[in-house]
Specification:
This protein has a three-stranded antiparallel sheet with strand order 1-2-3, with no helix packed on it. Helix 5 (99-112) packs across helix 9 (196-206). The chain has two domains: 2-83, DNA polymerase, domain 1 (Orthogonal Bundle), CATH 1.10.150; 99-226, Orthogonal Bundle (hpI Integrase, Chain A), CATH 1.10.443. It has ten helices and three strands. Strand 2 (147-150) and strand 3 (159-162) form a beta hairpin. The protein starts with a helix and ends with a helix. The protein is globular and about 60 Å long. The model is unreliable at 187-193 (pLDDT under 50). The chain is 52% helix and 4% strand.
């Protein structure tokens, strides 16, 4: 409830998902009995499955917040999450894609998930965050005006994204296969046949680019835009 009241919708949904994972870890445990070492064990499991330090720190922050709220309300007197050390984040990591890598990724998409190529093109030519793209609704797309509206950005503000010619083609292709969904990219998780994180990671892995992430498409778009190329 705290996240719902104090955070933007995307952050709240992320917190809700992470809390469901945390509750699964400690099902059957009293909150007062959970130890820092038990929390560390779960975090190590996430790290072994490829989760980045920043993700682990988000889990820690959310769990610590839950304990702090319980402390404030007089329900608990401990906060084991606070005793778990923060992971060192590599904020300097910025990965860009060159034209050869783009061709390699595209070839693998056509081989493994050909129907998803327009989603790749939309990301390539708008720089949208993955979550924003997969929650984008047709009511916020104006092909006539050439504008995508993000009602509420990560920072809580309305944002406008111009539609270039390549993004226009991608959107028109997606519109032709929408099947009545209000969502541009096949809609919610219940409607999608492939989770964007999983299918893109699969493509990157098969293309022998396992360190390439969806967010790196955003970095590449920003770099090209700064040089007048989109």
């Amino acid at each position: 409830e705290y996240s719902r009241t104090h955070k933007v919708a995307d952050s709240y949904k992320g917190d809700k998902w992470m809390m469901s994972i945390i509750l699964g870890w400690f099902s059957g445990h009293a909150a007062s009995d959970i130890t820092p070492s038990e929390i560390e064990t779960q975090f190590n499991g996430l790290a072994n499955r490829g989760r980045m330090p920043a993700t682990l720190n988000r889990y820690r922050a959310l769990l610590s917040l839950a304990y702090s709220l319980a402390n404030r309300n007089g329900k608990l007197a401990v906060n084991p999450a606070r005793l778990v050390r923060l992971k060192r984040e590599n904020n300097a990591r910025v990965r860009f894609r060159d034209e050869v890598e783009e061709a390699t990724l595209r070839a693998k998409i056509r081989e493994l998930h050909p129907k998803l190529e327009p989603e790749f093109d939309l990301a390539n030519h708008t720089g949208m965050r993955r979550g924003k793209q997969y929650r984008l609704r047709w009511e916020n797309v104006s092909l006539k005006m050439g504008i995508i509206t993000i009602p509420r950005s990560k920072h809580g503000e309305r944002r406008y994204i111009p539609i270039n010619s390549a993004a226009q083609v991608a959107l028109e292709t997606l519109a032709a296969s929408t099947n009545g969904s209000p969502y541009v990219c096949s809609g919610s998780k219940a409607e999608r046949s492939k989770d964007p994180r999983r299918w893109f990671q699969e493509v990157a892995r098969e293309a022998r680019m396992p360190d390439f992430r969806w967010h790196d498409l955003r970095h590449t778009f920003a770099s090209r835009a700064s040089h007048g190329r989109r």
